[in-house]
Each structure stands twice: as C-alpha cells, then as structure tokens.
C-alpha cells in the first residue's frame, strides 16, 4: 500500500513479505494515503490530532494550526490558533461549530459560519475539549474541557458563559467523548461516565495496567451507540453498556449503571478504537520487547469481541511514513459514522482505510487467479460493480485456462462468456485452431438462434474428418444440417471412403448426411448394407415402403422381429401377398411372418393356412397344435396327412377327434402315448358313453390304468361298472386309496344334493309366500278401465244395473259375459291375452257382481 522506509530490519521485511504472499485470506479493508494538501502540510509540519465529519476533516498540527480539508485532503480553510501543539479538535453533529484546545492552554469555540465564539487562555495545558453534540441549538450551548480538571461551560440566557467543575483531583484528563446525555472521560486513575440529564456520575472503570505511563499510552474511548462505550488502554479492551437501574434498587444510587459485557487483553498496545457493525477496528502500536528502540509498523486489526476474549478477523501492517520514530501516543484512529471510513493519523502521514467493495473483491480474486469466483461475483453484482466488466473478466478467465492447458474447460466457459457475440466466437474458434484444439471447442459452438458462418463449422468438420472419424460422426449427429454446406461435407466423406471403403463409421455418417439432404434411397441402401438399427426408423419417418419391396429378405435377415412388426403395421403399403411372394424362397422367414400375421388376426392370411401346416411342422412344432385348434380354415385331411407322416401323435389325436373319429383318437392315446390321464381327459371332453366303455375295456387288464380310472371317473361313470369287471385276484396299486376316494366323492355328492334340496325348499316356500301376498292384494277398478275383449268401459254407466266383472292377476279385466266358457277345467278361467302370448295362464282373482 505505502512505500517502505529504509529503517526496517531485513529479516522483518522478508518475513512479512512472505507471509503476505502465502496468505490466501482476502483483506477486509483497503488503504490509501490522504494526499493533495495534506502532503504539503506534513512536509513542513506534523499532525497532532484530527476530527472527522461526514462533510469534511479538521486537522491540527504541532505548530498550532488547524486546517479544514475536504474528503480528498484538499485544504478549504486554515486557522492560526497557537504557536504550539493543537491537542484536540471537537465538532458538533452539524459540523457548524468547532472547539479547539492547545498545549499552551488556549481554548477556542466558534462557529464556522457565524461570528459567535468563546476564547479563553488557561494557565495549564488543555489536553481535550468536547462540544455538546447538539451545540448548534440554542439550549445546548455547552462544552467541556480537560486539563487538571474537567470543566463544564454553559451559556446562560444573558449570553454569558458559566463554568462549573465536574471532576478534579485524579491527574490530567487525556480523553473526553460526549454522546447524547453521557460524557465519558479518562484520567490517570480510570474512566468515568457522567449523566448530563441527571447531573450524576454513574461509574468509574479503573485502569488495569498502572505500570504504563498514561501520557505515553493514553486511553482510547469510543461510543458505539448512545449506551455502549468501548474503552482501550494499554493492552486491555473493555466494552461497557449503560443500563437503566430498576426502580426498586435505586435508593441513593444513580438511575443508571454500567455493565462490562466484554473484557479481554490484546497482544499489542492500543492506539485507537472504532466500531464496525458488531466488530471492532483496533489500531495497535507494535513494540519489540527485546529491543526497546525498535518500532514495527502499526497494525490495523478487525476483531470480533467475545465475553472474555476476541477473535481476529483480519490484520494488516501499515507502512506509514516515519513509523520508526513514533510512540503509542503519536497514533490516533478516527472514523466516519456515515461511511465505513477509518483514518489512521500519525505525525507525518494520514492513511484512510475503507471497507472493500465488490470491485475490490474481484480485484483480489483476479490477483489470486481465482477467475471462476471472480466471474461469479461479477455476474451476481453486475449492477454494483463500476471498474469491472463481466465479459472482460470472462475473457481473462478463458485466456488463463488456455495458458494452463485446460482447453476443455476454456471451451466450456466460452458458452457463458461469449454469449451472442459472433465476432468473439469466431475469434476464439480461430485461436483454438491455432493451438490445435478445435476438438475442445466444437461441442460448445452455438447451434440455436445464434449461428456462426458455415465456413466455421465446415472447418471444424474437416479437421475431425482428418483425425477422428468417431468425433466427426458425433458432430454430424448433434449439429443441425443447416449449419454447414451438406454437399461439401458429403464430397469430403466420399473422398475418404475411396481410401477406406468398408469403414462403417464413415458409411453411417454418410447415410445421415444423405438423410439431411433428403436422398433417402441412398441412405437406406447404406443402412441395409451395414445392417444399421436406424433403418426401420428411417423407413417409417420418411415413408420409404415403396423402396423396400425388393429388400424384405434383407430386412428380415437383419432383425426378424422388427421387420415383421413393421410389415404388419403397414399392410396398406406392402400387401401380404407381396411379402409372401418375396419370402417364397426363404420358408423359415415366411413362417415367422405368417405366424405373427395369424397371431394378430386368425382370418387375414386364411388362404395360406394350408401352407402354414407344413411350415409349423418343419420350423415350429410347439405352435402347430395351437394353430390347428385356432384355425377354422385349415384343411383337416391335409393336416392329418402331414402329422401322420411325421408321427405327431398329439396333433393326430386332435385332428382325429375333430374329424369325428374319437375311438381311433382314444386308441392312439392309449397305445402310443400310454397316458391314462390324457385318455381320461379326452373321454371327459367328448362325454361319450361308448368312449368310456372302450376306455374301461382297454384298461381292464392294466392295473395302473385301473387305478387312474378309479381316481377320476367317479363323476362321469358309475364306479360299480368298473369294479364289477375287475378280475378277482388282480393286484391293483393304491386300490384302497382309490376306493376311499370314490366313497368320499359319493358322500360329497350326497351332501351337495341335500344342501341343494334344502335351498330349493326354502326358496320355494319364500316364493309361495310372496305369491300369496301378491294375490291377496286388492285391484282398483274404476271408470278408466276397459274390458280387454269388447273394449267397452268395464263399469256400466248406470251403476244401479246388475253387472259382473272378472279381474285376472295379470291385471287384465273382462266382462263375465265376454269371457269364453271354462272348457276343460270347470271352475277355472284363464286370461285370453296372456295365454295367447304364452306368458302362462292367469287365473281369475276377483269376480265382481252386482
């Protein structure tokens, strides 16, 4: 930050420089020397004190002068106060009044824009003066001075100044800080706080290290807010909070008290303190205990106070001019509350420390070559940065990555940094070409709304074509065909194929290029030649079915399942007859096609069912029997002939049974299959008594068959018929178990019959009761009803006459004379209408007579 002076130790210098170089922690503050008019002043004079206001600075010197400076250090006003050192300058909050005291006892308080003022000469040095923060207001014309005594001056209503002693007898007062109604001051004994509103002194914070001379290591005071005072003395820091006392505890005590919330020791001597949010900025005087004459550079630290210790956040050593000659009392730290500005004052130098902004943060990241973080910080705070440009940082990052040889990362960052700037994109592409890294940037080139010139893409494709066929193929697949001149690339690929005509990668890529160029026939030809999986997608997408009529065998050889599915899904474009014709010489492929066709629809390929019998018998016997069962167009005689030739017993049995020759079918099962289970199942399916008789006759001399029959025929044939025919003395395996099963089945049948009988009886009774209730109900007969025979009103117009009406349960009504005679069953009549419609006879339920 500042220039190094020659009086510094070589070992100290090298150590500190190495520490700075190795440090990866970003500093919290940045520094600059207050120059302009200040430089000239300090060349001839030395700074003794300074006070900071939001609008200006007030600097006091050892030669008794006071300068008003702007924030840049330019002199705006000059006051000749004394010929000796200015000890203190105090400003009110408005910055309109100033109080000055000097080593020769002079005290002056005056307005910068008015003629009013106070001038007094004391017989002892006045070390400090402090104006009331609201001094501008007429009822707050008060200030205090500190020498041997703490004196309060107040202007009364007669415009005269009244003096009163607030404190004396404890040595020289070295510091005063006035905040709101609280005045804090330090003397040789400790720090006191005076409550101006109650006119009471409320605390006394004793000095810890009494061995240090108070004039050489003065006390530093600083108000953090209206109730928090920070005290630094020697190597001790205390944070004191003024609190209101509980009314029940007051008695004769002040209404306020002070609680020390934090107290800790520091490594170095304190020259100044200032608050920074919840942290502290501390100015340290660094002294080598081994060499009393040596003075190190002062340090400005940011610390986090804890109840009994502190945590160091940052630490900076400051190279101020002539720091070798300074003592602890020669440094001061002032701060501006409006901004986070901290002024380090020494006799020959004034340094301004300020919090680092986002630009400074980015500067540090760039200096440490942390380009990724710098770019991210710039993007997040692009509205607040003033000295940096996001794209410029990004370009620096790309250059850095290229320099390190991280070409892929550099290319990836191009997408983010270059954005839609076509000129920058093309420059980067040519740079990557120069360093031989076109492959790295190829996958990140823009290919959407923003597109570079076709020559750029073609240059990259040609580069890949020379060195990397696979990479070339990947780019062709990923890049839209509109990015480059398709014909030029096709020609280049063909040139390479002349040298390597069987290269599958180049052939596949050429097919894709033909597809982009809508030359689908050429692409299809290559795909079929290569047996490429995308051939089916190409046919579907571009409706190339007319082009594959003579290539069906090739497609089937490549992938039977996909080919057949495609042909069946598009029967309207390639007929079944055409497919069968093409596959005539490849019966195994023809079978696959016709089998799937049959699975989809049993009737579509019916004219090929006779042909399919032989195909199933030759290539797929397991599906022959299901085919014979499901097909209604298969010639049974032809099928029987083929199955008998090939000795397919199960299929022959099925065909014989289907043709009505069940006895022969059963005979084949018994004689050739020798499977009693299948024979029984077959007999059950046919449900023919003669078949059962044949089965029993065939099995009667075969004990295992008898066992099977005993176990299974109980529900179809009376077991007694079989048992009676068993020869006496024949050994039948598991006979006892079979007989027990027959008895159990018989008992089960009896139980089922009894259960059914109970259910039928209960249901019959329930229905009878329901019918009885229904028939017992009355039927309404009125003028609206008509005779179903003569269609006259059922009731006569003259109710006095005798009449007779018959009403049936079906709700049909007749005049009695309109009904025919009872006929076969005297006394029973039936509804003519319901009887004619065969709904069942309805009996008369009501006969009305009058």
From TrEMBL:
GO terms for molecular function: zinc ion binding. It is found in: Cytoplasm, Cytosol; Early endosome membrane; Endosome membrane; Late endosome membrane. Residues 13-25 have a biased composition (Acidic residues). Coiled coil: none annotated. CHCR repeats lie at residues 564-708. Residues 1-12 have a biased composition (Basic and acidic residues). InterPro entries: Beta-prop_Vps41, Clathrin_H-chain/VPS_repeat, TPR-like_helical_dom_sf, Vps41, Vps41/Vps8, WD40/YVTN_repeat-like_dom_sf, WD40_repeat_dom_sf, Znf_RING. Transmembrane segments: none annotated. The keyword Transferase does not apply. Residues 1-30 are annotated as: Disordered. It is a peripheral membrane protein. Its main location: cytoplasm. One of its GO terms (biological process) is endosomal vesicle fusion. It comes from the Eukaryota. Belongs to the VPS41 family. Plays a role in vesicle-mediated protein trafficking to lysosomal compartments including the endocytic membrane transport pathways. PANTHER family: VACUOLAR PROTEIN SORTING VPS41, VACUOLAR PROTEIN SORTING-ASSOCIATED PROTEIN 41 HOMOLOG. This is Vacuolar protein sorting-associated protein 41 homolog. It comes from Betta splendens (Siamese fighting fish).
């Amino acid at each position: 930050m500042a220039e190094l002076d020659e009086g510094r130790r070589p070992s100290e210098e090298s150590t500190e420089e190495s520490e700075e170089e190795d440090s990866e922690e970003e500093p919290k503050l940045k520094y600059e020397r207050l120059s302009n008019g200040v430089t000239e002043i300090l060349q001839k004079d030395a700074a003794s004190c300074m006070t900071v206001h939001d609008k200006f600075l007030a600097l006091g010197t050892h030669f008794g002068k006071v300068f008003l400076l702007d924030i840049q250090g330019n002199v705006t006003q000059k006051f000749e106060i004394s010929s000796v050192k200015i000890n203190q300058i105090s400003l009110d909050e408005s910055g309109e009044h100033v109080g000055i005291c000097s080593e020769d006892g002079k005290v002056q308080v005056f307005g910068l824009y008015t003629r009013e003022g106070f001038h007094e000469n004391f017989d002892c040095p006045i070390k400090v003066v402090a104006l009331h923060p609201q001094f501008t207001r007429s009822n707050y014309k008060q200030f205090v001075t500190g020498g041997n005594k703490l004196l309060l001056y107040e202007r009364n209503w007669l415009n005269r100044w009244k003096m009163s002693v607030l404190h004396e007898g404890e040595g020289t007062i070295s510091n005063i800080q006035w905040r709101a109604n609280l005045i804090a001051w330090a003397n040789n004994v400790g720090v006191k706080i005076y409550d101006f509103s109650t006119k009471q002194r409320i605390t006394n914070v004793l000095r810890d290290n009494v061995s240090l001379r108070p004039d050489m290591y003065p006390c530093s005071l600083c108000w953090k807010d209206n109730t928090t005072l920070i005290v630094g003395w020697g190597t001790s820091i205390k944070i004191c909070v003024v609190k209101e006392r509980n009314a029940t505890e007051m008695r004769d005590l002040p209404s306020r008290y002070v609680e020390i919330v934090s107290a800790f020791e520091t490594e170095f001597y304190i020259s100044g303190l200032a608050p920074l949010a919840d942290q502290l900025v501390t100015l340290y005087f660094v002294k080598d205990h081994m060499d009393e004459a040596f003075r190190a550079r002062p340090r400005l630290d940011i610390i986090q106070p804890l109840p009994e210790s502190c945590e160091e956040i940052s630490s900076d050593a400051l190279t101020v001019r002539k720091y070798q000659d300074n003592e602890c009392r020669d440094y001061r730290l002032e701060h501006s509350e409006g901004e986070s500005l901290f002024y380090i004052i020494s006799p020959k130098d004034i340094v301004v420390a300020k919090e680092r902004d986002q630009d400074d943060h980015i500067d540090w990241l760039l200096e440490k070559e942390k380009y990724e973080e710098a770019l991210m910080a710039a993007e997040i705070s692009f509205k607040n940065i003033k000295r940096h440009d996001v794209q410029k940082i990004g370009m620096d990052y790309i250059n850095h990555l290229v320099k390190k040889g991280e070409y892929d990362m550099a290319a990836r960052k191009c997408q983010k940094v270059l954005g839609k700037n076509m000129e920058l994109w093309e420059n980067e592409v040519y740079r990557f070409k120069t360093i031989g890294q076109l492959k790295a940037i190829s996958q990140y080139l823009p290919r959407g709304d923003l597109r570079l010139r076709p020559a750029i893409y073609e240059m990259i494709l040609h580069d890949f074509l020379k060195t990397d066929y696979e990479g070339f193929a990947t780019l062709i697949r990923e890049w839209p065909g509109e990015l480059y001149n398709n014909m030029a690339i096709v020609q280049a690929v063909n040139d390479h194929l002349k040298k390597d005509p069987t290269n599958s990668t180049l052939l596949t890529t050429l097919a894709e290029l033909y597809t982009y160029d809508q030359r689908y026939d050429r692409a299809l030809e290559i795909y079929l030649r290569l047996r490429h999986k995308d051939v089916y997608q190409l046919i579907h997408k571009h409706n190339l079915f007319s082009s594959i009529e003579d290539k069906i065998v090739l497609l089937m050889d490549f992938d039977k399942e996909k080919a057949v599915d495609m042909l069946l899904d598009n029967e309207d474009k390639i007929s079944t007859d055409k497919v069968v014709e093409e596959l005539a010489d490849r019966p195994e492929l023809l079978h696959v096609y016709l089998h799937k066709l049959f699975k989809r629809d049993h009737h579509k390929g019916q004219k090929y069912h006779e042909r399919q019998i032989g195909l199933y018998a030759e290539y797929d016997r397991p599906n022959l029997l299901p085919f014979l069962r499901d097909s209604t167009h298969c010639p049974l005689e032809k099928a029987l002939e083929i199955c008998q030739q090939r000795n397919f017993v199960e299929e022959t049995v099925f065909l014989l049974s289907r043709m009505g020759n069940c006895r022969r079918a059963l005979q084949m099962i018994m004689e050739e299959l020798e499977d009693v289970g299948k024979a029984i199942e077959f007999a059950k399916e046919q449900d023919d008594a003669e078949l059962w008789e044949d089965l029993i006759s065939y099995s009667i001399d075969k004990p295992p068959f008898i066992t099977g029959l005993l176990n299974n025929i109980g529900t179809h044939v009376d077991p007694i018929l079989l048992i009676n025919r068993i020869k006496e003395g024949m050994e039948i395996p598991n006979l006892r178990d079979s007989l027990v099963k027959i008895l159990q089945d018989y008992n089960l049948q009896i139980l089922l019959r009894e259960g059914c009988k109970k259910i039928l009886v209960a249901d019959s009774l329930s229905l009878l009761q329901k019918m009885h209730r229904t028939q017992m109900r009355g039927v309404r007969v009125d003028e609206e009803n008509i005779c179903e025979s003569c269609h006259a009103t059922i009731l006569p117009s003259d109710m006095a006459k005798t009449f007779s009406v018959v009403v049936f349960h079906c709700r049909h009504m007749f005049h009695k004379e309109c009904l025919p005679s009872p006929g076969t069953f005297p006394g029973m009549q039936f509804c003519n209408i319901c009887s004619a419609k065969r709904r069942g006879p309805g009996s008369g339920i009501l006969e009305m007579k009058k």
